[in-house]
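Ticket opened by: R.M.
Priority: normal
Category: complex prediction / small molecule

The reporter submitted a protein together with L263DTV3 and asked that the result be attached to this ticket for the collaborator who will pick it up next week. Submitted input follows.
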Amino acid sequence: MELKPNLTPVLTDAAPLTRSRLGVSSGLSPYSSPKGATFPHHGPFLSIPRKKTGILDDFRSSGWLDAMKCSSPTRNKVSKDLNHGIGSHDAAYSTWLLKFPSALASFDQITNCAKGKKIALFLDYDGTLSPIVDNPDCAFMSDNMRAAVKKVAEYFPTAIISGRRRDKVYEFVGLSDLYYAGSHGMDIIGPPRQSISDDHPDSDKKGLGELNLFQPAAEFLPMIDEVRRLLKECTKDIEGATVENNKFCASVHYRNVDEENWHIVGQRVYDVLKGYPRLRLTHGRMVLEVRPVIDWDKGKAVTFLLESLGLGNRDDVLTIYVGDDRTDEDAFKVLREANKGCGILVSPSPKESNAVYSLRDPSEVILFILIYFVCFFFCRWTASESDR
Ligand SMILES: O=P(O)(O)OC[C@H]1O[C@H](O[C@H]2O[C@H](CO)[C@@H](O)[C@H](O)[C@H]2O)[C@H](O)[C@@H](O)[C@@H]1O
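Result attached by the on-call engineer:
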């Protein structure tokens, strides 16, 4: 997916002419905060508490250490749960399922909602398409998952929305006929234009028109590069800490750091950020992520893609978003609030969420994709046959 600058302009919000050419009309803007770049409060994102002087508090007292501990079950927590017995975990999970029913067991509800609608599928990568593993470079998806996603994308607009760098997630997924949003939606690309053909089974794919690339945080790139280098330097003596280049985000992983040293990781990241008021800190599963303060997240990326596809502001579209991470909550929330579709949370344990349904793990995600999308395909086929 090499982009030629003249064919695929980098679009920023400062290009209203180009945006209108794309048919993106809702005023969706990464800089829409009325007071400009502030620290937006997006659902589960934690903003860094600031003193009036602009100087950050101590990392421990800020509540960030607690957030780091809650971000994913630790080895201690897992063994504690096991000691309490599988029964008690199962009981809690069963109770939780009453609130977030399994998408696999909700066939009638979901297919009823889908009747007569166009379907768009959004998929998170880590923890959804691939299992969570200790080494982020080895989070491979299975061939079965790849085959399932490939099949779906042949018939329904399908996008991968990841916190990872776009080229990295593309390398993992390896499918060209998809939309990719990397860096938590700050780096969006559609498939090569030749694949948006007139005879594509889903003519809505043509709605993308000239849109190939959208990078609302492009101006932050040098700053993020600089910060990533500083983060690498200041964490290099902490065993197990790694800094991942996610292009518009710098991600500091602490999954492999001894729990006793997590506060050191946090404090160092926090100290680096003191010098960068235009960056903010969010956290995912055992990862601290530094990103621009722009008002943009996975939820905004979903809205943007739907609008670009000509599927925004329509009542006959069902959007399904499957994700496991707190950053996916922004997308779940957008769908819930706009009544545009449903979020499906992938989680093996109870969690609060803006999703509507749940799946336990990536193996259930494959089943969900295969069962539902075969059904959606046949429903559509039947409908078009009877139209003849
Ligand atoms: O939005 P996603 O596609 O879910 O990406 C979120 C982060 O995923 C990766 O980190 C997570 O998965 C790793 C591999 O299983 C795991 O080792 C790590 O602890 C998790 O946080 C990725 O490495 C990050 O860059 C993404 O932001």
